[in-house]
Design goal:
With about 230 residues, the protein is of the alpha+beta class. It contains five helices and 13 strands. The N and C termini lie far apart (about 100 Å).
Length: about 230
């Protein structure tokens, strides 16, 4: 289901004008791209925040209606107020259906609870990446990429090259021969600490036994005749 974002063209610019818009429940933004002139826009704060909190808003083709004129766009950038997390400014890029786009899409991890390394070997899952940059035509853009952990064993990882992506989609890092790890199953920290402690105790015990044996050998030696 396509998300439709409603906006109005904005003539006023500058810090003071943007501050007044925010006080009146509006958010300033800009629309650019597709070989057209950039257009300043303004959006309703409450409505935009509701849409902004949806995952699909960040990784799908949106429909931007500006004064009734509809265009396909991507969310490209935004600024958040550091304390409240409210949107201060937002950027949209026009989309050309015949040109490839670069988008960060999230990973959806499945079967974590029945992964071999977790269920059978007591490991814990470590997510190294949560999203990935892809390249594709707008019509092929997936909202997420699924990562299946069911057969992942303790001490093993899933890499970018292991992922199944839709036809027409390329993972940018792989085109640069960067086959990064996405997720892995590792030993729990407590267990790892216990293993180190146990190894240290065993080593200390062996040293103690060795020292005791050396001491006994020394005691059993006959004194040299003078």
């Amino acid at each position: 289901m396509k998300i439709t974002v409603t906006a109005e063209k904005r003539d006023t610019k500058g810090t003071g004008a943007s501050r007044r818009l925010r006080k009146n429940g509006k958010i300033p933004g800009i629309l650019y791209g597709n070989h057209k002139e950039a257009q300043s826009i303004v959006l309703d704060s409450k409505t935009l925040h509701l849409q902004f909190n949806k995952e699909a808003f960040h990784a799908s083709i949106l429909e931007l209606s500006t004064d009734g004129e509809k265009e396909s766009v991507l969310l490209r950038d935004y600024q958040l107020e550091p304390v409240k997390g409210t949107i201060l400014h937002i950027d949209f890029q026009r989309v050309n259906q015949n040109e490839k786009i670069h988008v960060n899409v999230p990973f959806h991890f499945i079967n974590e609870d029945i992964a071999k390394g977790v269920k059978l070997e007591g490991g814990v899952i470590s997510h190294i990446m949560t999203e990935v940059d892809i390249s594709c035509l707008p019509k092929d853009l997936p909202q997420f990429i699924e990562v299946d952990l069911e057969n992942l064993e303790l001490g093993h990882s899933i890499h970018l090259s292991d992922l199944k992506v839709p036809e027409g989609v390329e993972i940018t890092a792989l085109t640069h021969e960067n086959d990064a790890a996405v997720t892995s199953i590792i030993k729990p920290k407590v267990q790892a600490t216990e293993d180190v402690a146990s190894s240290t105790d065993d080593s200390a015990a062996e040293d103690a036994d060795s020292n005791e044996a050396d001491s006994q050998d020394s005691d059993n030696e006959e004194p040299e005749e003078s």
